[in-house]
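Case 377 in the screening queue. Each case pairs one protein sequence with one candidate compound; here the compound is glutamic acid. For every case the pipeline is the same: read the inputs, emit a complex structure as tokens, and attach any notable structural observations.

Predict complex for case 377.
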Amino acid sequence: MTDKSGNNQRKGRVVVKIGSALLAKAGQGVDTQAIENWVQQMNQAREQGFEVLLVTSGAVAVGMHRMDLSERPHALHQLQALAAIGQMGLIQTYESAFQKHGRHTAQVLLTHDDMEDRARYLNARSTLSGLLSMDVIPVINENDTVATEEIRLGDNDRLAALVVNLIAADLLIILTDQQGLYDRDPTQHADARLITKGRAGDAVLTAMAGGANTLGRGGMATKLQAAQQAALSGATTVIANGRENNVITRILAKNSSDPVGTTLAPEKTPVKARKHWLAGHAKSDGKLVLDAGAVKVLRESGRSLLPVGVKEVQGNFLRGEVVTCVDDNGTEVARGLVNYNAEEASRIIGQASDKIESILGYVDEAELIHRDNMALV
Ligand code: GLU
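Case 377 output:
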């Protein structure tokens, strides 16, 4: 599908996370002006060819404002109720801000558990990929009615990183109310220095990250954890102040004479990180025997594995498990998360993807293994 700007070229996939403390000042509700500003920059990024996903918190904060509460309640069930109230206002604000640019948005509510369950993981991935291909901006928050991880600890920092892993994003931008990561707590030490560049897994940085701020749950420690999680699938994280002029645009421009915030690079190359990340998924004894054409396409053109390139299905596996792809001699070529179970796969192999629906009665995806969910050996 061609995007609105007529730009088909993928410049990079970016997850922008906006925190509660930025969005809603205590007792003042949602900051519409600030949201319109970020939305304008995200829309511009989309027009430049970036694929943009937004992870936003702030539902509890907006709910507190709507219910005239100046103090954050302690009981989780009350916070969950406030999140349900506030989510309405939050999503409405984003929706109208993007509509001003003629861009549609979609509300996606996820939980950490969704990322651990094999089938739900792939379902979420497919939905988000579908939204991106329809040129729509996903607006993601935790589903606070059924989960409390982010209300308790994260302010969506970790959720944003899991989304990065899920859709193999290249960059995570965490917007917060501080300049970035400092070498010591800047509220206590006037000579604290901003760290402009580092490695996500650097133990020295972990020791430096301070405690949580007041409105949002996530302090620098959760932001660093998020950067480490994002690095697992090879993504870079930038932690920056959301109040800086044109912050998103400047981060994406990567102009070395105009540094913004703290950039945390992954330890491994995206390819190695991907293999490592796949290793953490349920592995089956399933195998797909590929024809010579498919082996060449995987190795040389970096494309997905389609059913038409598979000659044989061996072993048993479920949708979302890791299967091995081998050539005629049994040599491993790649491994990845398979979109169909063994029984379904054996019915669609050798067939064009547009036949899947008539064979199975439904179609999950055109690919047997999507490129984003695959690591070459
Ligand atoms: N999902 C929650 C929200 O959007 C997390 C942040 C919080 O607990 O304040 O409000």
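Case 377 observations:
- Confidence is low (pLDDT under 50) at residues 1-8, 211-216.
- Residues 281-376 form a domain with the Archaeosine Trna-guanine Transglycosylase; Chain: A, domain 4 fold (CATH 2.30.130.10).
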